[in-house]
Amino acid sequence: MVRAILCTGAFVAASVLLAGAMKADGLSERARKLHFSCIVVDTHDDTTQRLLDSKFDLGTRSSAGSIDIPRMREGNIGAIFFSIWMPSKVTGPDAVNRAIVQIDAVREQVRKHPNDLVLATTAAEIRDAHKQGKIAALLGVEGGHMINSDLGVLRAYAALGVRYMTLTHSGNDEWADSSTDKAVHNGLTDFGREVVREMNRLGVMVDISHVSDKTFYDALETSKAPLIASHSSCRAICDAPRNMTDQMMKDLAVKGGVVQINYHVGFLSQEFRDREKANPELNKTISAEVTKRCADNQSCQLIEGDRITREYVEQGKLPRVEFSKIIEHIDHAVKVAGIDHVGLGSDFDGANMPYGMEDAAKLPKITEALLQKGYAEGDVKKILGENTLRVMTDVQLISRELNGEKQKQESRLQ
Length: 414
Hints:
Elements: H1 2-8, H2 11-25, H3 29-35, E1 40-45, H4 48-51, H5 69-75, E2 77-84, H6 92-112, E3 117-119, H7 123-131, E4 135-142, H8 151-159, E5 162-166, H9 190-202, E6 205-207, H10 213-222, E7 227-229, H11 246-254, E8 258-261, H12 265-268, H13 270-278, H14 280-294, H15 298-314, H16 324-337, E9 342-344, H17 364-372, H18 377-413
Parallel strand pairs: 1-2, 2-4, 3-4, 4-5, 5-6, 6-7, 7-8, 8-9
């Protein structure tokens, strides 16, 4: 196409049109070129809940929510981890069965959209998908309660393609304490440590978003592989227990891990969090309205919760949070943990997004903002995806080593 433009002498006209388009969306030519040359990896999206709705098609642009294939293309998402999630109160065989249904829903979307999506489990497969012009779809289980305290279930999930598991969700499970529940295990139990070791062997990343500080340190001590925080932000900026302290980020980095910054306004903005805490009736009112609109449809609840929160912002009941707060958290995490240990974990379709980052199509604005702050292009690439790809590779290598050790031990016993 470029050759044709040059040959016809229309290059100048095309350049003018391109410059106008870049001016309209606020992106510089440098930012656009860099962003669309990168593999952008998002480690946490709750779009899976929408996939359970037979009326929702990932391939069609939606007027609601944040994720669909057209908008992922516009934002140049190269790899996306679909979250397998349900509330912590769902336990036992029911949790396992529901997790399997969600895993199948993601795999079905890959089957239905073979020209756009490919199921991936490794960094190499993500890179191959990128070369083919496809989006790599990956799986992450958000909450250890879904294995029903059974390592066999964990192994089954891994066989189906799951490549990370968050040790807890918002409530404690049977073997680990959550950051938003009253501690009952003092971190990880002995079985919890077994879970971490088996995840290492399977090549499943240990995700410490949602866990208590003690659980984090127990997992860090137990794991031979680097950890990830698939969707956490910085506690120094917003004092939410779900966020990581500076010391936690430093310790995560020492072991090679990555913190993927969450875009939820309640984890980005202290002002937003303070306003919520000062008026607890607001959340009750929002919850009641969500129930009124959605009943027990969790997909609807996630979307409508964001919509209603925005209505409250427009009414002045909650403060407006701009997407620049994402950049503030990224920058802080880089200064604390180092450039090799920060990534992106949006929480799209599962949280309240800041203004300017309503959906995946807006992702190039992160690249523009980082360049404006003086980040080198190579460092921007690391944040957008290369750091996560590196930790995936490291986890896979350790898995191979551990499986090799196991085979040697078994040979010695024979």
